[in-house]
Amino acid sequence: MQDGISGKTADLVARAWRSGGAFGIVLLPALSLSAYWLGGEGLMLSVAIAAPVLFALFGLARRARPAAVADTGIVGFATEAGLVQALDGVMADLPVNGRTSGCFVVMFDDLDVVLHRHGRLARTRMVARTGERLGLAVREGDVVALLSGDGFAVSLAPVRRFDLENAVQMAARLQAAATAPLALDEVTVHPSVSVGFCLADRAPMPRGASLLDAARIAADEALRNGPGAIRAFQPDMTRRRADRAELRAGLEQALDEGQVRPWFQPQISTETGKISGFEALARWHHPERGIIPPLEFLPLVEDAGLSERLGEVILYGALSALTRWDKAGHKIPRVAVNFSAPELRNPKLADKLKWELDRFNLTPDRLTIEVLETVAARSDDDVIVSNLARIAGLGCGIDLDDFGTGQASIANIRRFAVKRIKIDRCFVTHADTDPEQKKMVAAILSLCEQLGLDTVAEGVETPGEHATLAQLGCGHVQGFGIARPMAVEETFGWISRHDQGIARTLRIGRQAP
Question: For 100, which DSSP code?
């Protein structure tokens, strides 16, 4: 009999569980009285304790599991189609009930980094765990959906007041939920996300798909300005997105037709004042839009999978420039070329460099390869390690670019056979007037001196910065204060003027101890 009574009470609790939320809490007194009538004080006490816990857990589950549930691979989240359906319903009801809403898109800044450092399983688990966190950060009635490309979208249940300030606060809350440190077995990762959003009344068209697309456009803009950026949709973003799509479509043709070619920025020895080299920097000479800045098209190159093709173009242009300077009688020791991670993963890269150097009849010491510190920090990439070792073995120089902004260890500096450190401009700026900046630069230079590494400071814009770096012992400088990047045709006149001016310029030497 007792088992039967307990079963009836359990059934009552289960029904209350299924009804959920505040309605379930209202039923709590009735449940307690029923338990007392059926099983006495003991059962009533059990129900009184257990039921609120069950209702609370159910409330959390409902918040994490929206109505438009489908099989997404992450339990309890909507598909993109389900989200659009939910947004259609929201957009249709807004004019009737006088409320408002919005859509947020959350995109990872660093999924590829997690993939390279920790593997595909860790990447998949990070996406799943982040989705769970977003589900717990939203309110009941909000919809969380998994998007293609491992991003998430959040549709807000309509509210009476939701303006730009509220939307920014909501975006920051989603960002905070997604970026908390995440423990994956023995590894702790620190996710980084950018967020784009669109208010319902700012959508280009009163449809769910239009609202989601606007939030996606804003998220793309945030990614371009990230990591960790937040952007609200603006109508001109649509035009900029179309422009980028047009550029992306024309990139391959531009590379083939020679529209993309290197410009050259000089590097100067602080000891002699002479030109110690040039850095080759990609520029796109668009036939209609003129010179397109690298910040606009370099991300498109990587998205389109054309990094290696761009590298070939810039390398050819750089080595061609060296031979032209030699023929003109200018003594330029070396040219530096930036190589991206996709290029450095090519197992035949060292063979390709040797072939190109032989083709131009140049010795390997005339070529320097610049590697970003963020790439060097990925010490688990054996292909990159092997390639850089072989390139150094050829006799080419290895520069570690943007030093101080990443996480490259001293061990990696040795492992990658780095010969010169490039001090990032964030340390160079105001080094002559800011004591803290000066201390930071001095510390980097002291480290390099102890390790026997040469140094070059980039982003030098004033004579004061130039003088301070020279006095602290930095070997070379480059930046707008020396010269802006220029086409190869312009370098000949600049080299002649600089060489002629050396004799008339007081050399800035290292400060005596």
Answer: B
Query: What tens digit of pLDDT does each residue of 58-98 get?
Result: 443 333 333 333 333 344 567 888 888 888 888 887 777 77
- Its pTM stands at 0.56
* 286 closest CA partner among 316, 246, 340: 246
Which residues contact residue 171 at a Cβ distance below 8 angstroms, ignoring those fewer than 6 apart? 104, 195, 197, 230
Both tokens assigned to 206: 């009163």
List pLDDT tens digits, range 218-229. 888 888 776 888
**242-502 has which fold?**
TIM Barrel (3.20.20)
Residue 227 preceded by cis peptide, ω within 30: yes
d(CA 144, CA 511): 61
Q: What share of the chain is helix, strand, coil (3-state, %, to 5)?
A: 55, 20, 30
User: How many whole angstroms separate alpha carbon 417 and alpha carbon 385?
Assistant: 9
Amino acid at 484: R
Q: Per residue in 157-194, pLDDT tens? A: 888 888 888 889 999 999 999 988 888 777 777 888 99
Query: Collapsing DSSP states into helix, strand and coil, what is residue 233?
Result: coil
From 189, 174, 165, select the one nearest 105 (Cα to Cα): 174
CATH node for 80-233: 3.30.70.270
Name the H helices within 65-184.
Answer: 80-97, 111-118, 120-137, 164-179
> 239 CB contacts (<8 Å, ≥6 apart)?
none
List beta partners, residue 291: 285
> Quick check: 130 and 109 in contact, CB under 8 A?
no
Let me know the angle formed at the C-alpha of 173 by 167 and 179, rounded to the nearest 5 degrees: 135
